[in-house]
Amino acid sequence: MMKKLLAVLFTSILAVVLVACSSSDGGDSKSAGDSVYDQVKKDGVLTVGTEGTYRPFTFHDSDTNKLTGYDIDVINEVAKRLGVKTKFEETQWDSMFAGLNASRFDVIANQVGINAEREKKYDLSLPYSKSTAVIVTAKDNNSIKTIDDLKGVKVAQSLTSNYGQIAKDADADIQSVEGLSQSLELIKQGRVDATVNDKLAVLDYIKETGDKDIKIAAELDKETSSSGFAFLKDTGFKKPFDKEIKAMKEDGTLQKISEKWFGEDVTD
């Protein structure tokens, strides 16, 4: 009889504990069916992955050390319209998608080129900038004038970028680097022959530094790329982001940000 009473008492206590745990957890966890976007809206903070070393898109101002750039301005404006604040997590480009996959951040704002391969794996927003690829060499290098001239030569690239893929497709000898700045240094040191990168970024670098040791050897007109924000699949971000980017194009805000950084509209 005593064993039965103890068993009943133990069962009752366990039930009370489980109900209490369930009640305490329920207030902090998101509701069933909420998307990651819904949770971001509730928390009020959008975590953004970016390099912070890729001017004029994402970099630190030399005077204030504040993170700034075209991509930073655009993502901040989108977040403002969505009613949330931005929190930036800086990481190297070749680690960017690994960070997104691990949910270290909600979105990548770093000139993510829109292509079919990425669209299979991720949700990509409407484009907010367009540009062309260029080949950069040392000023006295006259052997590289077209994409075909990259075959077999040493080319410095971030391995996971669209520009890296262009160099791979040209059968170049790829030397892995963290970003554009390192690529240009290796060119000037004579350790590599060239790099393929974004025309706007290269022109900005030349403008800001006055570097006369490098040149744009070729512009790849067929390699025009559009950049968008990247999210994990089915997290609920694409639709609201697309809505705000479209609205920013229609009301002239996106063009205004573009002209601030480039002196022209690079959004179409």
Automatic annotation (TrEMBL):
Keyword Signal (UniProt): yes
UniProt keyword Signal present: yes
Compartment list: Cell envelope
SUPFAM superfamilies xrefs: Periplasmic binding protein-like II
Ionotropic glutamate receptor C-terminal domain sequence ranges: 45-264
Originating species: Listeria fleischmannii 1991
CC terms in the record's Gene Ontology section: cell envelope; membrane
Name assigned to this protein: Amino-acid ABC transporter extracellular-binding protein YckK
Domain Solute-binding protein family 3/N-terminal, residue spans: 45-265
Family in the record: Belongs to the bacterial solute-binding protein 3 family.
